[in-house]
Amino acid sequence: MLRLGHRPDALIEVLHTVQQSFGYLDDDALRYVSTSLHVPLSKAYGVATFYSLFTLRPQGEHTCVVCTGTACHIKGSTMILNRIRSRFGIGPKQTTADNQISLLTARCLGACSIAPAVVYDGEAKGKQAPDDVIARLEEW
Amino acid sequence: MSFNLTPVLTAQWGLDQSWTLGAYERADGYQALRQALDMEPDALIQLVKDSGLRGRGGAGFPTGMKWGFIPQGDGKPHYLVVNADESEPGTCKDIPMMMASPHTLIEGVIIAAYAIRANHAFIYVRGEVLHVIRRLLNAVAEARAAGYVGRNILGKSFDLELTVHIGAGAYICGEETALLESLEGFRGQPRLRPPFPAVEGLYACPTVINNVETISSVPAIVRGGAQWFRSMGTEKSPGFKIFSLSGHVARPGQYEAPLGITLRELLDATGGMREGHELKFWTPGGSSTPLFTAEHLDVPLDFEGPPQHGSMLGTTALQLFDETTCVVRAVKRWSEFYAHESCGKCTPCREGTFWYVQIYERLENGTATEEDIETLLDLSDNILGRAFCALGDGATSPVTSSIQFFRDEYVAHFEQGGCPFDPVASTVFAGASA
Questions:
Q1: Is A14 within a domain?
Q2: Structure confidence by residue, pLDDT tens digits, B235-281
Q3: Out of B92, B94, B429, whose CB is closest to A111?
């Protein structure tokens, strides 16, 4: 916050930084941010819930993002999600009970040429079949 | 091949480490900037006007005219904002562009900022694409170290601060006024216009908002001149553009070609549809543009062609679907996207997209009736033109156009009590699991 000069318009940047450091935004963090930047708590909460990248719940050790854009959908992303659900018992925005894997979906990653695309811990991979995804997640 | 591909934007993509400053400079990078800084800002605006460059973000507004709207000598700071919030389903041109050659964009940004006399420029990137963010940040740091960004650029009395702003995952922020709201730290909801951003944009100051591809085209225009640029494309839509092929094609990817090319020519040059299948329907410019079918293969893809046939050029995200694809399932997917991404500001879009999804769920599980098709059309009629911004209008495009061309398929869904298609047949691993 010091780097960004406590400006109210730096709210999104600050929330990014908080989430990077703590993994998610809890009530205390939102209160602290809103006081420091002199923005109402309602606004901080509004912004945190508006944007899909911010999460108010803790995430697992690893994250797996499945793209569900149209090209990926047609080429089988739903089947990938179904396989993950039957193997690990989690759906989108859920984390396994051992806190190892969080599953997320993205609306379109702009990687339509290599559909279906999956991002493992920030590393994007294309042309993923359900078996590839399960094999990769089992390594975690 | 019946046409010449025009590698201008993509010319450097194949270079060794094309994203580094060294590689870009060896390919004459930043020469256009030197030329531009020797010109008067107004002469630059005139040059871009003469070139006929039109915005590549979808609407096709003449770029030079947009720059000309910025009031000069008003004593207010001016801002340049680059819209790199590319998230339209199927659109994947800006992200590869920034990955392969971020310096083309940065050079364009500096030239454009000089022309409109802005001393602060922002690049608004999607938060999802971490690899692009990392690459852009590195490229900006390189440009700063080389003296292209900062104070007294190339020894001239021109200062420019360049900020890469990272979005947080909201499709609506690609709408230019929602993007400004988001830059100012608010929820990304569109603003009422007028005042237009050229008068009161970012922090209520005159602001130009351009797409990545538009700005990236500027250095080439400065180097080649307006006549050269006009030698490509069509009279009203001059120049080149990146066409993103995806879906059931043999070789998906980015293909740069002059505007006015047809999908048939593009397919001929790139190996056609995937083997053993034929084209059923396609989008000329992402999901917000009404669908086309095989009978539209010869529509010239420029800003004038698709509108004559009831669609739009959009972002030239050509998504192609073959005969294994259920059109209802594809449109359901798009509707779910719009319902999720609707910002909630206006009622037609917020409620209408929600209704769409409910009706498509009924269609999919076979409990819909003839009446539901009428409801879809009625809803579309009430969203189109009545929504606050273009997102709502875009949501209706796939719905109305798919009913127009494939009404039989909708009917088949409730006559047969469910989807008549095999969902596996359309997947990338179709052969393997059979």
A1: yes
A2: 999 999 999 999 999 999 999 999 999 999 999 999 999 999 999 99
A3: B92
d(CA A1, CA A37): 8
Whether B87 and A9 lie within 8 Å, measured CB to CB: no
Residue of A nearest to B170 (CA): A51
The pLDDT, as a whole number, for residue A2 is 59
The shortest CB-CB distance from A106 to any of B128, B183, B424 is to B128
The residue of chain A nearest to residue B127, with distances taken between CA atoms, is: A53
How far apart CA B65 and CA B53 sit, in angstroms, is: 10
CB atoms within 10 A of CB B145: 11
Tell whether the model's pLDDT for residue A81 goes beyond 60: yes
How high is the ipTM of this complex? 0.84
Report the domain count for chain A: 2
State whether A43 and A100 are in the same domain. no
CB contact under 8 A, B424 and A12: no
Identify the residue with better confidence: B427 or B104: B104
Contact between chains at B170 and A52 (C-beta distance less than 8 A): yes
The residues facing B165 across adjacent strands are: B124
The neighbouring-strand residues paired with A64 are A103, A120
Same domain, A23 and A76: no
| CA dihedral sign, ordered B126, B391, B328, B414 | positive
Q: Which domain holds residue A127?
A: 62-139
| Confidence (pLDDT) at B50 | 96
From the list A98, A81, A92, A68, the residue with the least C-alpha distance to A134 is A81
On chain B, the residues whose CB falls within 8 A of the CB of A15 are 168
Query: Dihedral through CA B170, CA B175, CA B178, CA B183, nearest 10?
Result: 80
- Tell me which chain A residue has its CA closest to the CA of residue B287: A70
As given in the structure block, the two tokens for residue B422 are: 């095999």
Q: Phi first, then psi: what are they for B172, rounded to 5°?
A: -60, -25
- pTM for this model (two decimals): 0.92
Tokens of B90: 């199927």
Q: Closest partner residue to B246 among A9, A15, A115, by Cβ?
A: A115
pLDDT digits (tens, 9 = 90+) for B291-317: 999 999 999 999 999 999 999 999 999
A125 and A71 share a domain? yes
